[in-house]
Design a protein that fits this description.
binds acetamide, alpha/beta, elongated, Chitobiase, domain 2, disordered N terminus, 2 domains, eight-stranded parallel beta barrel, 565 residues, TIM Barrel, single chain, 23 strands, seven-stranded mixed β-sheet
């Protein structure tokens, strides 16, 4: 379901703030908040006599007031960010909304149901209002709303330091401009993916990655946990998935098109224990991010069949692969395989509370199935046309199991071939064609086309760019991406639940390079999925981004400067 919400009327609990916002052209519009909020304006209801350019002084003495456990948790995460990047924390206290306090400056967090104008609007479940007055900042929001308001607030800090000093851990006094921000997301799926199979990233770095997502109000972390080059999640029933499947004996050197092919001979691998994965899920939950795990099937299964060769169509043995591409030894659709995958998924579902479980489905060569007597007999027995329908049979069986556990599957757009499983969502990566087709069939769709949101592609054609897989996805291309295809009617567009970018890591071996490929393209993506399209403007974005890099510098992020002036 796409969330739509009229721009003009957003009457919140501080009722008198609802005014026409269409003509907001005040300098406050360029507050360096990414993604650009729906409304940013002067604070018209603040006490009279207030100076123009009035500010709120945020210092170590500022008190955070909460109204319950949700806002307390949001305040804790906010404080963790302050402590990590600015070297101080604010005191947190629970207080009734009406309570007057003697502290010189307070940030009041109010988890509340935001009232909306019944005739013109429906409440967005994650809406928030951030009101910066001279003595008090109030952030009121539904669900994730207060957390999102806090992200906007902390993005204002760098521009609010005195006299343009370099932002550093010793900066503990900020003068924030009085203003009102009224905001809510455009899409319900604001996703970012990370491949941890081609290269493995530590649990601590995965948390850092989640921090970046949280900063831009993204709400889905798609964790690509299995592939040909490594199985990265402990499965208690099948220990060889990690003792064997998590390690390869060497890795390709250079680009996979280079000949002759060369490998290092360094054993490479790693995996997350179930305790690690639960820790990541909880870390993300506190940041209002859902972790969607991906377990690839029936293709991209080399690491799994290296561990358990009986799951393939030929006897093996197989190896965990050290090269990049598409490989032939896929899961064979036999009962033993379904039992195995169901047992794996049962453990996955117990760890990850997400509504959707990603089952892959992409790039499954059918060669082994064509050569297999068993597969050909199964095609006949089930009355299937061909191997594509056999893949559809495979996915539908898995879907039945996942649905029986109260969850839904999402898969790459190849799951359309041979017939879409009845309740499946589709992630459209080979352009938008698959997404358009799925939406026409009334299935939920996440747009993730290679052409605009593959962050493993080059972002610059300048010399000196680090090696990438290929392609060209510069910042402005990401920014201008529009996830609702014109080919769809407004009713069909409702099935586009959002968009996400993917970060495949064949050529990304280190956290530094992940950051380089991720940022600032993630900033552009955030505006694609959050900001109303009529509010988007690339030049304005670049202006905000320039200011925002002060925060990235303070956070010591290795972002790419290729698109910056
Ligand atoms: C994909 O990029 N193979 C989904």
């Amino acid at each position: 379901m796409r969330y739509s919400f009229p721009l003009v009327v957003f009457c919140i609990l501080f009722g008198s703030l609802s005014q026409s916002h269409a003509a907001d052209t005040t300098p406050k519009q360029i507050l360096p908040i990414i993604p650009q909020p729906v409304v940013v304006r002067e604070a018209p209801t603040l006490p009279s006599g207030q100076q123009a350019n009035a500010t709120f002084q945020l210092s170590e003495k500022t008190l955070i007031l909460t109204n319950g456990s949700q806002t307390e948790s949001d305040a804790t995460v906010f404080n963790e960010f302050l402590a990590a990047h600015f070297g101080f924390r604010l005191k947190v206290k629970r207080a009734a909304a009406s309570q007057k306090l003697s502290a010189a400056s307070v940030i009041r967090l109010v988890s509340t149901k935001i009232e909306t104008n019944k005739q013109t609007a429906h409440a967005h479940k994650d809406a928030y209002t951030l009101t910066i007055g001279e003595k008090e900042i109030t952030i009121a929001g539904n669900n994730a709303g207060v957390f999102y308001g806090l992200q906007s607030l902390l993005q204002l800090l760098p521009a609010s330091q005195p006299a343009n000093q370099a932002l550093s851990k010793s900066t503990k006094m900020f003068a924030l401009p009085t203003c009102v921000v009224e905001d809510y997301p455009r899409f319900g799926w604001r996703g970012m993916h990370l491949d941890v199979s081609r290269h493995f990233f530590s649990k601590d770095f995965v948390k850092k990655y989640i921090d970046y997502l949280a900063l831009y109000k993204m709400n889905i972390f798609h964790w690509h946990l299995t592939d040909d080059q490594g199985w990265r999640l402990e499965i208690k029933k099948y220990p060889k998935l990690t003792s064997v499947g998590a390690y390869r004996k060497g890795t390709l050197i250079g680009h996979y098109t280079e000949k002759p092919v060369r490998y290092d001979s360094i054993r490479y691998g790693g995996y997350y224990t179930q305790a690690d994965a639960r820790e990541v899920v909880e870390y993300a939950r506190k940041r209002h991010i859902t972790v969607v795990p991906e377990i690839e099937m029936p293709g991209h299964a080399s690491a799994a069949v290296a561990a358990y060769p009986e799951l393939a169509s030929t006897p093996g043995p197989f190896e965990v692969i050290g090269n990049w591409g598409v490989f032939y030894d896929v899961f064979c659709p036999k009962e033993e395989t379904f039992q195995f995958l169901q047992n794996v998924l049962a453990e996955v579902i117990a760890i990850f509370p997400s509504k959707y479980i990603h089952i892959g489905g992409d790039e499954c060569p059918k060669d082994r199935w064509k050569e297999s007597e068993f597969c050909q007999a199964l095609i006949k027995k089930q009355g299937l046309q061909d191997e594509h329908e056999l893949q559809s049979y495979f996915i539908q069986r898995i879907e039945k199991f996942v649905n029986s556990k109260g969850r839904q599957i999402i898969g790459w757009d190849e799951i359309l071939e041979g017939g879409l499983a009845p309740n499946a969502a589709v992630m459209s990566w080979r352009g938008e064609k698959g997404g358009i087709e799925a939406a026409k069939q009334h299935h939920p769709v996440v747009m993730s086309p290679t052409t605009t949101v593959y962050f493993d592609y080059y972002q610059s054609q300048k010399p000196g760019e680090p090696l990438a897989i290929g392609g060209f996805v510069p910042l402005d291309l990401v920014y201008r991406y529009e996830p609702l295809p014109k080919e769809l009617t407004p009713a069909e567009q409702q099935y586009i639940i959002g968009a996400q970018a993917n970060l495949w890591t064949e050529y990304i071996a280190t956290p530094d390079k992940v950051e380089y490929m991720l940022l600032p393209r993630l900033c552009a993506l955030a505006e694609v999925v959050w900001t109303p399209p009529e509010q988007k403007n690339y030049d304005a974005f670049m202006g905000r981004l320039k200011q925002h890099t002060q925060l990235l510098d303070a956070m010591k992020v290795n972002y790419s400067k290729s698109a910056l002036p």
